[in-house]
Specification:
single chain, alpha+beta, Jelly Rolls, Arc Repressor Mutant, subunit A, 2 domains, six-stranded antiparallel sheet, four-stranded antiparallel sheet, 10 helices, 14 strands, about 40% helix, globular
Length: about 290
């Protein structure tokens, strides 16, 4: 089912959607980082002002002939699968694409960086304009986001938050102007901090936990917390919570007091196939097989 885009433009003084109705196949909104899968027919956009920092990562199977008007003339380029365009909040755009065009549309609100990276100067943040750029790391992030877009399971907020923070940090370190860089945090959490996080997670396994709520427990930014947490435990926050959930699932199955569906829901799995697949990767057998053996 198609969705209405949350990404907008300003043209002739009016706010208009960045994609026509019916062209947005899937969408994620990570509280200021919006990612949508657009499938557009051959066409063009009128002259407009870009709202939020914008990227378009080509995802289709073939190279797309693309043009943009700048300083009174059209400039052409070929968008290979995996290549991307990138422009800043407030830039002027007049693009057209000469074949049907599929891409991941990314909009990053300037305030998004303030939340995940408080030390970044988000008000003066500007990126170097990119046209048809190839970057293997951006391609990897695009693949991971595309996988998430295809999932109907919404209870993956911690993983998606971590992925979004890592992507936004990579873009800032790689493409921001003015030498804005975020150094990789060093050090580890104190023992009491780790215990507080463990206690909170164990009390809320049934909830769709997010990176911000965990980072607030130790008074750190989400990005800094994610890095320092991995330095401490050897696992990302998402991997750590998943491990605790699956260990708890094994414990509850051994007790044989609840159905597998009830157990899955009690530890935050609301998609049975996701629970089964995760359990099998962790234990080497499905929950049903595990239940029969204990």
């Amino acid at each position: 089912m198609s969705k209405a885009t949350k990404i907008s433009l300003v043209s002739n003084g009016k706010i208009i959607p960045a994609a026509p109705k019916g062209s947005v196949k899937h969408a994620l909104d990570l509280n200021g980082l919006i990612i949508e899968h657009h499938a557009l027919e051959k066409g063009e956009l009128p002259e407009h002002t870009i709202v939020d920092h914008r990227m378009a990562i080509t995802t289709g199977p073939r190279t797309i002939p693309f043009e943009y008007r700048e300083k009174g003339k059209w400039n052409g380029l070929s968008l290979q699968p995996g290549s991307f365009n990138m422009q800043n909040h407030g830039d002027i755009g007049i693009p057209r694409w000469l074949e049907d065009y599929q891409f991941l549309a990314v909009a990053i609100k300037p305030q998004f960086y303030e939340k995940i990276l408080p030390k970044a100067n988000h008000q003066q943040l500007e990126f170097i304009t990119q046209r048809g750029t190839m970057d293997k790391n951006v391609m990897l992030f695009a693949h991971l986001f595309h996988t998430e877009l295809s999932k109907n399971n919404g209870h993956r907020k911690l993983y998606r938050d971590t992925l979004g923070a890592a992507f936004a940090t990579y873009l800032l370190n790689q493409y921001a102007t003015g030498g804005q860089r975020i150094k990789k945090p060093k050090g580890k959490l104190f023992g009491i901090q780790t215990k507080n996080i463990l206690d909170f997670v164990m009390s809320n396994l049934h909830q769709d936990l997010n990176l911000e709520s965990l980072s607030e427990l130790v008074y750190q930014s989400p990005y800094h917390f994610a890095k320092v947490f991995k330095n401490t435990t050897g696992l990302s926050p998402h991997q750590f919570v998943l491990k605790l959930r699956l260990e708890k699932a094994g414990e509850l199955i051994r007790m044989k007091k609840s159905s597998l569906t009830e157990i899955a829901h009690s530890i935050g799995f609301y998609d049975q196939s996701h629970f089964t697949n995760s359990f099998k990767r962790f234990y080497g057998m499905t929950p049903k097989q595990f239940h029969k053996r204990v």
